[in-house]
Structures are given as C-alpha cells and as structure tokens.
Amino acid sequence: MNLFVALGIVLVCVAVGVASILLVRRHAPDGSYFHDGDRASGVFGVLATGFAVLLGLVVVLAFTSFDESRAGAETEALLVNQQFETAQFMPEPQRSELSGELVCYARSVVHQEWPRMDDGTQGDAINPWGVELFQTFKKIDPQTPAQQPAYSKWLDQTSDRESARNDRMHGAVGVIPTALWLVLLFSAVVIFGYMLLFADSNEPWFVQATLIGSVTAVVVSSLLLINVLDNPFTTSGGGLKPVAMERSLRVLAQQEAITPERPSPCDAKGAPTS
Q: What pTM value is reported for the model?
C-alpha cells in the first residue's frame, strides 16, 4: 500500500471520527449518555484492553510471517550463488548446464514469481528451472575426489534452497484469516461507537475531538500496518523487493556464468528460449 494512500485513509477516518463526535455531542446530555460514568469507563477499559491484546498478537503473527519471507528470500539468493560455486566442480557438460539453469532460476524469481506473488496468482506453482536443475543433476556420475563431495554438497544446498523458497512463498498468501480480519474490524467499530456515547456537551469540543481522533488514528494505523505485513510482496510501498536475488544475478554475471561459449537457456526474464 502506498504511503500517501495509507496516510489519506488515516486522515479520512480521523475526520469521520471527529465529525461524528461533534455531531453527537450537540444532542448529548450533560455528562455523556451514561448515567453511571464509572461503570461505563470500566466496560470501555475491558473492551479496549481486549482489542489491544488481540491487535498485538495479530501484529506479532503478521510480522513473524513477513520476517520469515524476507529471510527466506535472502537465503534462497545466497544459496543460488553457493550452488553456482559447487557446480564448478562438476564434470562437463553438466557444469555449464547447471550454471546456466541457475541464472535462469534467479531471473525467473525476479521477473516472473515476484510479480505473481504481488498480485496473488503465484499459488503453488513451481519454478520450472528447479525441475531442470534436478534433471541435469541426475546425469552426473561423480568420478574424481573433488566431484564426489561436491555432489553431496549440491544435494544439501538444493534441499536448503527449496526450504528457503517455501519460506518466501509462505508469506505470499497471507497468514491472517478472513475471520480474524472481521473480528478486528468489528471490534474497532464497537470501540468507536462506544466512544461516541461519552460525548458531553459541557466538555470543550476540541478535547473530545482530540481524544477520538487520536484513538481512531492509532487503531486505523495499526490495521493498515497489519495489512502491509500480511502482504509482504506488494509493490506499492513497504513490500519486499527481490533485491537479494538481483544481487545474486550481478554476482553470477561477474563470475561469467553465461558466456558466448555457454549461452543462457532462457531469455532475460527467465522464460525458456527453446
């Protein structure tokens, strides 16, 4: 979500809250609508505390998922570089094939998977170059003392890369269920409505406007924060970018993973060329 859009939403909600309290207080009796202010304040304290605890737990849940996706993306990119280095110990022609397919894997993540994660269409789709890497690797018959440990190391790195990819993909679908969103929104509306009943025609208007405006701003900002954390790959501000994988592509270019003698089996966006 764009920062200016989020700010606009907060300001609109604050304006609605302030306008509502000013409208209600025009017809409010002295001392608010509650005959027993202490009991009403106690009930409001329970409601606010319960909402705050729920909101805090949801923020922690969403942030944990966001951080898991970030760490997964960085680890996956690092392992692509490490697997390229391991591939250099493999026999030809598999060495060149694995090197080119790793480049295509990285390109596919940046130019194909990332946009689909942003718009929610990635689903359980696999990276086709992961399959190609496995098919190429199956052809290897390690013979030399250098190839045998490299063979085992490649298997471990592939497992770690797939695990990191799963961590990255996990955040693309969001972890906050619809039912929980409904509870959060309903609770926010209840608290907002309850605060309107504290309207007091004898109290200065700007005091009541400040109180409800502050609470509204904090609640709406918290809900927007949860939305951003629950959609970590959004491109409209605050989302994760494929910076780590782009860095890996630059490293692979410096290491000449693709040369005229070893052409890439894909185009610049990771789509197969044949």
A: 0.83
